[in-house]
């Protein structure tokens, strides 16, 4: 599925992913490939992204992206926001 993480200042991440764990207001939840359409509010926490391909940071990589020892997993710290899943595209509008 395609993922976009966007803040008011910039596009933090865009790419192909296999799973995303999100800090929902009622607790953590996970979205997988071909998930049913959903809209949900998010609270402060970390988004865990399981990538299809290895992530390679460069000078354009957002400071909000935390790299893990597994190059197919990244974390993004958010202060809250909204997520929408539709037609296998996940969009996170984050603070």
CATH class, named Mainly Beta
Strand content: over 45%
- As for the CATH topology, it is ATP Synthase, domain 1
Give the biggest beta sheet. 5 strands, mixed, barrel
* Strand neighbour order, sheet with most strands: 1-2-4-6-7
Strand count: 7
Mean pLDDT: 90
Spatial shape: globular
Q: By helix and strand content, what is the structural category?
A: mainly beta
Percentage of residues in helical conformation? under 10%
CATH superfamily grouping: F0F1 ATP synthase delta/epsilon subunit, N-terminal
Report the radius of gyration as a whole number of Å. 12 Å
Q: How does CATH name the architecture? A: Sandwich
Report on the structure:
The protein is mostly beta strands and 95 residues long. It has one domain: F0F1 ATP synthase delta/epsilon subunit, N-terminal (ATP Synthase, domain 1, Sandwich). 0% of the residues lie in helices and 65% in strands. The chain is built from no helices and 7 strands. Strands 1-2-4-6-7 form a 5-stranded mixed barrel. β5 and β6 form a beta hairpin. The radius of gyration is 12 Å and the shape is globular.
Short description:
The chain is 0% helix and 65% strand. It has strands spanning 2-6, 11-24, 27-32, 38-51, 65-67, 73-86, 89-94. The chain is globular and about 30 Å long.
Would you spell out the secondary-structure blueprint of this structure?
Blueprint: E1 2-6, E2 11-24, E3 27-32, E4 38-51, E5 65-67, E6 73-86, E7 89-94
Parallel strand pairs: 1-7
Antiparallel strand pairs: 1-2, 2-3, 2-4, 4-6, 5-6, 6-7
